[in-house]
Amino acid sequence: MLGKQSIQFDNPPYIVNSASIVGKKEGQGPMGKLFDKVEQDDMFGAQTWEEAESSLQKQAIQLLLDKEGMKKEDLQLIFAGDLLGQSIASSFGLASFETPHIGLFGACSTSGLSIALGSMSVAGGFVDKAVCVTSSHFASAEKEFRFPLAYGNQRPLSSTWTVTGSAAFLLTREQEKKPRARVSGVTFGKIMDYGIKDSMNMGACMAPAAADTIKNNLQDFGRKPEDYDKIITGDLGSVGQKLLFELLKEDGTDISKQHMDCGMEIFDSEKQDTNAGGSGCGCAAVTLSAYILKKIEEGVWKRVLFLPTGALLSKTSFNEGKTIPAIAHGVVIEAL
After folding, report:
1. Which pLDDT does position 332 carry in this prediction?
2. What pTM does this model have?
3. Domains, the chain, ordered by start
4. Of 258, 275, 259, which is closest to residue 267 (Cα–Cα)?
């Protein structure tokens, strides 16, 4: 343990490989050519939006297994989660793999949470191979948290567009071949609640959580922002980014030179109607798989702080007038 929230690994686990699958809109964005698979049918061959999201996770893991020449029997543990009630996208999508399953909920921070817990399991020697996977789907998220698509409601400029996508990551203890990167440490976030009740402004809800975890990561590891090539949040969008900078500057911390937000990178803000940017569990996950790890492999970045953020609301709590608490989990990813 480092400080109150961080863990540094004596035996850093490796991110051996990953796989990503996205929908049509994401494929038309700036990273479109980097994803392993772009599906033109947002139903993914299913009958419902929820089944479509289950198909996303199933395909992401299968793509990963195919890349590695592995069978489902080779997997020891799956860490998985999604945005839907009772994590039904994961449970229905991954049952056929017949692998021990740890279901997680961190909202849009789930990719960071799953990789952090998977890394602890591998680094601790409890398993040799673990898969971390998460997903989101624009239509299933709108149906769950906002308005059915047929309602045709207008979206405020502060709103973000839930990414349709899934990514899976294989973590191992041993370096069997050249991995994509390694996980040297993690910083788990605290629940932060600034009293915001606007479900159409996720950036404002999550920015305080991102600021707190970044501040504690720097403090626990004894680092400065410039010790990271990039500090990458998951889905704050343009509104959340401004608030993040303001909150950190109150403590004398400036990350403006190092900061990148997956939600601001995955879509073209000028050509695609996504308002403040992208969001959802799949947003940070597919960006990590397709873009961030590629930059690390190429030697462009040596060390990044990957920090997906999540708004911990449900349709029940929102309808009962509750505030929207948030959390952010940080993963320190380094080049070999």
Report:
1. 98
2. 0.94
3. 13-172 (3.40.47.40), 181-334 (3.40.47.40)
4. 275
